[in-house]
Amino acid sequence: MSATGFARQATWGRARRLLHEFTFEQTEPDRFYSALAEDTAQMVEALYPESLSGATVLDVGGGPGFFADAFTRRGADYLSVEPDAGEMHAAGLDHRTAIRAQGEHLPLRTGSVDIAYSSNVAEHTATPWEMADELVRVTRPGGMIILSYTLWWGPFGGHEMGLTHYAGGHRAARWYTRRHGRLPKNLYGVSLFPITAQAGLHWARHVADAELVQTFPRYLPRWAWPVVNVPGLREVAATNLVMVLHKSV
Q: Is 148 in contact with 156 (CB distance < 8 Å)?
């Protein structure tokens, strides 16, 4: 297993297109999440060594349902877990393949899915590595785990608060509230937490029953991937870290 297939997709054009879509996250969320879901499905399809057709895919943090469409179009048996009922119904989409539950306590049998992945969720939980352990647990031997998350010290770490998070998460939230007259959706210390690449890599290299096989910055072009090998710099420049693990047989 390697990221060779996905590396061919990781072009400068893709990076530029995704950056443009990010500008619509707050104003046109349907457009943003549809584009992100399609890109995620393409990434998982390229990373998985078998066909997605018939594969059981677990999405921890599936949100309002856009990801379901992207995976079912590829023939996957898709199941999402989402703890926030408001988030699940935000887009008014069908949720026949969704379970309301916490990622840290997945209501699934051990070894029951082919692929377990979580996209941009770990930074929104206070105990991300407990959730990551659950991804490993529910994946079958020989299956694949993909954990992708936004790095706190990167330029998108503050989410809608922009670069003000460099002044501190609580201060950034106060500034946002003062400017917009409402709390940010991603409130520091409540639904947004400072997560690092170092912490994730430490977990991945020491987790039981799984082997770390690939890491790369999700939204950067292939020529920029070596940045994940540089401690310190990767916390800022990688922006979003992807860790791919293989469940031990």
A: no
Cα 116 to chain centroid, rounded:
11
Taking the C-alpha atoms of residue 161 and residue 201, their distance in angstroms, rounded to an integer, is 26
Please report which confidence band the pLDDT of residue 246 belongs to, taking 50, 70 and 90 as the band edges: very high
Token duo for residue 65? 């349902």
H or E element that contains 211: strand 210-217
**pTM for the whole structure:** 0.90
Q: What is the pLDDT of residues 126-141, one digit of tens each?
A: 999 999 999 999 999 9
Q: Is 188 helix (H, G, I), strand (E, B) or coil?
A: strand
Taking the CA of residue 113 as centre, how many other CA atoms within 13 Å lie in the half-sphere pointing to its CB?
27
Full set of structural domains in the chain with CATH: 4-151+195-247 (3.40.50.150)
Long-range contacts of 35-42 (CB under 8 A, 24+ apart): 36/66, 36/119, 36/120, 37/66, 37/67, 37/69, 37/70, 38/70, 39/14, 40/67, 40/70, 40/117, 40/119, 41/67, 41/70, 41/71, 41/73, 41/74, 42/6, 42/9
- Tens digits of residue pLDDT in 152-188: 999 999 999 999 999 999 999 999 999 999 999 899 9
* 153: nearest Cα among 117, 185, 123, 118: 123
Residue 92 has a pLDDT of: 45
Tokens of 54: 């018939």
In angstroms, rounded to a whole number, what is the distance separating the alpha carbons of residues 84 and 62? 10
Contact 213, 245 (CB under 8 A): yes
